[in-house]
Amino acid sequence: MTKADLGLIGLAVMGENLALNMESKGLSVAVYNRTLDRVQAFVAGRARDKNIIPAYSLEELVTSLKSPRKVMLMVKAGQPVDDVLGRLLPLLEPGDIIIDGGNSHFADTRRRLTVVEEKGLLYVGTGVSGGEEGALHGPSLMPGGSPAAWPQIRPIFQAIAAKVDNGTPCADWVGPDGSGHFVKMVHNGIEYGDLQLICEAYHLMKDLLGLDNATMAQVFQEWNAGELNSYLIEITGEILAYKDEDGAPLVDKILDTAGQKGTGKWTVAAALDEGVPLTLIAEAVMARSLSALKEEREAAAKVLTGPQPQFNGDRQAFVEDIRRALYAAKIVSYAQGCALMRAASETYGWNLNYGGIALLWRGGCIIRSAFLEEIKKAFDRNPELTNLLVDPFFKSQLDRCQASWRRVCAAAISNGIPVPAFTSALSYYDGYRSARLPANLLQAQRDYFGAHTYERIDRPRGEFFHTNWTGQGGSTSATSYNV
Description:
Elements: E1 6-9, H1 13-24, E2 29-32, H2 36-44, E3 52-54, H3 58-63, E4 70-73, H4 79-88, E5 97-100, H5 106-118, E6 122-129, H6 131-137, E7 140-145, H7 150-160, E8 163-164, E9 168-169, E10 175-176, H8 179-208, H9 213-224, H10 231-241, H11 263-274, H12 279-291, H13 294-301, H14 315-348, H15 354-360, H16 371-381, H17 392-414, H18 420-432, H19 439-450
Parallel strand pairs: 1-2, 1-4, 2-3, 4-5, 5-6, 7-10
Antiparallel strand pairs: 6-7, 8-9
Helix pairs in contact: 1-6, 8-11, 8-12, 8-14, 9-10, 11-12, 12-18, 14-17, 14-18, 15-16
């Protein structure tokens, strides 16, 4: 019996397409799904006459694989992954490799890796981005976990990944334990931010400038030909131009409540844990939550008042202002995402390569864009770069776009149009460039009511002081801490 190069568990849309992608690159793939009729339907349908071997039990899947066995899980994150691992581990041998290609939380991947490695096996948690089309034709892959696994899976990953430039694959080793899934999580958080920024640009053009869908579609097509060139800008133009069966724009018929699967929330929670101000992505997550309050918003719209949008200026010039504001805010979003990866890398000892990660995102993935090449160059210029905002290139871009950015935020606020991502990004920028913030008063307040202490500008950092503000307190202070 000819044995397969890799086993794949989970035949939802991503699993099916990855299996077909692998087979098209000359690999033999054994497939298994918990519901066996899906295996039968796949091999009788899309996988018919292809080098794909059906397995109707985990035991059959394992025995059909070449040694050391490589098994990739494409199942729902959370308990389902643990359930499959519990059944799969007793069937494998030391040296075999388990790959989790789902959107697992990085902390779960760290935990699972310890369990798997204790049994002598290797474990990889890999981000897979690109949706069903990317899975079939070439995704971006972000693997991390047991380093010894990479030389064995590298030929497979780099064969099936998206290619850019001179054929460079968008698949490379990220780092140890949960780093691959962490980087994918940050990718998804940045995706939340990109989508929200685009929606705010659309909102301004639609409700403030009064542009119709066909005109906005043309605007996004033009933007995609310049420095904003990206997959998300491209598809936004296509969406706005798409007509329903009756000839009316389909987008206008879609209910304005956004869903989310949790990776954006995880990104914000990780930023809170690391003490990183991930403000734009946090606002993007909250904007989705606010959109879900559809009935409450409709009721509030009948009660709460605000200005009616009215624009009397040069529409074409303001569209250019919006474009520049979008570009500037996008820089902030990626700067915050890189800062979060940097903090986590220090916390967990991952030694992440931020320029290399930007290369992984240039093709195949949802946030792919020309913009990412500039991030790679920034980290090439300075591998120890603390924040993208202070890189010479990005600093020059923010200088160029800043006046437009401020005009857009001011116009939105004056006209009552919510732009939480645009404005939070600008507030972050202004805060980051401020040598002194009002946190001195905040620390005084905290010391006043809770004896939380403070540092002084005329004393070395690390010395903490407490004042008996009322004359009625004592000299005892609360525990000092570092943010």
